[in-house]
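User: Before I run my own analysis I want an independent prediction to cross-check against. Here's the chain; please return only the structure tokens and, at the end, one sentence I can use as a sanity check.
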Amino acid sequence: MAEFKAVIADPKSGKTYKKDISGQFANALVGRKLGEEIDGLYVGLPGYKLSITGGSDKDGFPMRRDLPGPRRRRILLSGGVGFHAPRHGMRKKKTVRGNTISPDTLQLNLKIIVRGPKSIEDAFTEKK
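Assistant: Structure tokens:
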């Protein structure tokens, strides 16, 4: 059974919120790709629309949008997610994960696109 830690970014306020996803909602996210829009119901925010912006697996390897599939790969990077070159033109082989969510994914980064009827603070404080 899949379990994820969702980090939900609110671009309007600049705050982030953490929510654990498990059970049927987590299983429904397996197979989705980076950049897809999902319903906020998966994270307890009915009426919201969220976009999957990134994530990392159980060992901390980041997901890359341009690498297809759920597998880990060791690829030559010159910049972007997974490697930031200290010098201009530097390239290095790094291990990164593909753009598809799998049961090995631990953290999902989400961004709010469409707001729902409740404010996000009310939705999270009501559950606790």
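Sanity check: The chain has one domain: 3-68+101-127.
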